[in-house]
Fold this protein.
Amino acid sequence: MATAEPGPSPPSQAAPRKPACAVTFGRSTLLGRHLAAALAASGRWSAVAVLDPSPPPAAPPAAPLTHISIDLSDPAAPLALAGVAAVFHVDPTSAAADGSFLPLHRLAAEGTRRLLAACRAGGVARLVYTGSADVVAAGALDVVDADEGSLTYPDKFGDAASELRAQVEMMVLSADGNGGMRTCVLRPSNLFGPGDSSLVRLVAGYARSPLSKFVIGSGGNRSDFTYVENVAHANVCAEQALCSDTDSVAGKPFFITNGAPVKTWEFMSCMMEAMGCQRPRINLPAKVVLFAAEFSNMIHHRLGLQMSSSPLLYPDTVYFLSRTRTFNTSKARKLLGYDPIVSLEDGIMKTAGSISELPDILDLSVKQSSSGPSKADKLLGGGIAADILLWRDEKKTFSYITLVFLLFYWFLLSDRTFVSSSAKILLVISLALYIHGVLPSKVFGFAVEKVTPDYFEVSDSTLRNPIVHLASLWNGGIHKLRVLAEGDDWGTFLKAVVSLICIKVMLNLQFRVLVGLVLASLFIVFIVYEQCEEDIDALVAIASAKIKSLVDRVVRELPALRNVLVSLKVSYIIEIMLAMSV
């Protein structure tokens, strides 16, 4: 019996074609770069289109990345979204080079409106927008473990960027369900990472500012910081959740953090140490800085001036540095399946390790990166006086301030005379030394350290140095008087005149006021000079050059003026002699 030939084998079932996705601002933003790389590495997408107004890189990107240089307001934007299943929209305000309102509004509000229209026209099924938690948390109040339902949009925003982020977020949430497209919003708190030009720039600006030694507020406030790779991972989780659990996720916002709140100033200090700067240690009341910020804003507004792109004296910046802002991410963990993939410690280490590669962003001065002593330290001799007047040991500095104030009050503000105040001080010192001398070597088991006579002895070299210095000052003064007596050095004469005028002005003040100003300036001038050394040196150099030029000009004119005076005097004498002869 003949066997039948086997028929043709059935055709193998074709594998489903992978969809494509798009990332906005995938080159000009920190999150966009990491998100595009994460989507390309996931293997889920046949193509990842990077939509960015910046020009594409010179080298062609590795598959499946495709860079498309396009503005979202371009009419050709719908063509770039053809065949795209999901769009990841990154906060447009972080890509703006110009911080003024009109460019921000065009890029954020207008760009997002056109993007949503292009997504509906192109049949995009899912859109995930990543904004910021600042849209509901900025302000003077503390936010502690807040969830999405406990915070609403404020009536007034602190800056234009936060207001535009809120507008974009509302547009994205209201677009859910239109044309079959489902949307959701992510709100990361304090996004940071390698290559960051926002939070790291703020820390760098603070590190090179006169406030770098100060902690604004008590320093105990806490914040949530979110590493950029975790936010990119949250985008992937949100898009997958829109596919599998659409009704629970679509049209809702989600807080995204590292889940490990830390003290804000601990994070700031770690970043500042990575920049080669000292940790801030002196607490400055937040109300004082806030008053300065509001006053600065008022002056800029009245004069019509524009604040810098990353100002430290914005009220919102002061609130960020002095208020607690922590968020509950249980909703994102439950509905999105989000869980941080990089710990906060590892994120800080990676970011700190990349800081040295960003000189254009940090723009730190040579003074802060160098470990050598400052000019103020050299002027003070680098000893205990430098430690006290430069506020390196706050307890010691405040102790000496208290001691100086007590002495100032005892000698100058009380009704006693200087002699009677000194006599009472010496009486107290003598009584204390005598009681200390008669005490046994041990009192209740505690050893009493005796004051030896060496404490009251002054060596010949120690006594000789001030005497030699005083003699040098005396000889220098006598030399200046001789120069003035010769009448040939107009420069020395002008210096003497200016010095005497300054002494006269100071003597017009009450002695106690003058001493109080001197003592107060000791604890202010040196620390200010150390923080603003380069700026002050530049101003002094300019002022010195101007004064020297003016003095040289006056000195050049003085000999001619002297000759005129001498000729007038001679003619006057001749006239008197002629009159007497007649």
In short: The chain has a mean pLDDT of 81.
